[in-house]
Amino acid sequence: SLHDALPIYASVGRTLTDAPSRIAAPRQHRFWTMPRMITVAAVALLVIVGLTLIAFRRNPSVESSDSTINSLAVLPFTNSDPNSEYLSDGITESLIDSLSRVPNLKVKSSSTVFHYKGRETDLKKIGRELGVHALLSGTVSQTGDDLRVSVELIDVRDDSHIWGERYGRKVSEVVALPQQISRDVLQKLRARGDGVGGVDHSQITRNYSPDSEAYRLYLQGRYNWNKRTVEGLQKGIEYFGQAIMRDQDYSLAYAGLADCYLLLNVYNVASAEDSFPKAEAAANRALSINSNLAEAHTSLAFVTYRYHLKWAEAEEHFKKAIALNPSYATAHQWYASYLAACGRTEESIVEARTAHELEPFSLTIYSDYVRNLY
Questions:
Q1: How far apart are the first and last CA of the chain?
Q2: Which single residue of 30, 183, 273, 285 has CA 20 to 30 Å from 120?
Q3: Angle, vertex CA 156, rays to CA 135 and CA 65, nearest 5
Q4: What is the pLDDT of residues 308-332, one digit of tens each?
């Protein structure tokens, strides 16, 4: 028993305690004196530092890799006119959409960067918070039908100016401006040898309407949808609908319409029987125009498993959306909810964490991540 064993433990303890006194002390070796040990350690340290410096000098790729740009954030463009705020926000979102499709370039989502809208913050601090190498910022000014946009690309690690440009356009030409800016940014990065991949700008342009008024209405729709309020969603439906009235082949407007109907049900404003069929019709119409629209695949996946309970088909749409645009956080967020509903909890946590990393300032995405952990 434990009671019977206690004297044995005590005896062993006394034996170990007394043991050092019965062991002969080893003979001291005079070679390793304290001064000699300090000298040897100092010499060894100098040798290691010297070899490291030589290695860095002989390998120029190490130095060049430190200045490589493979991640950036597009800060919300500023606009002195509140009535034209939708225009500067729209240019920002369009640039993010274009650049996020570039291989080997990590781009922060719009909901993340809009956290900094209207804030005077040190650019190097923003870069550290977002974990990116570069920031693209700009200003928009409008005088009548004339539009002037100034853009600057900065390396936030050393606050150095990489590239800048000024663009003068008519408001009616604004639809093509984000694609022009993204092309110029990519050309500059490639010239630096940053290794960013190519992108099919003709595919991106298909998402936008050649009708400048339809594009303006679409920007108004997204601006209101991003408010995530009931009034904002209802106004978003109105603006997306007006954009579609002007351009019936406007894929992004249909996708925006689907998103609004879905959130009206999520926020318990509309019933599933009323909102899901409308969202499904809008998503299908968007895909009939452009089958490679990640937003539409995500919306359709949401409807497919939540309303029709077609699990395998829904997962195909989620995977397609993520393959088309890995930076689209909503696809990861809703796929995580799908995986949790399937009982695939470990996979759901991975997707929820990915969504949170892409949009660290989104409260809805963060709460969904926490729910998955729970």
A1: 44
A2: 183
A3: 105
A4: 999 999 999 999 999 988 888 899 9
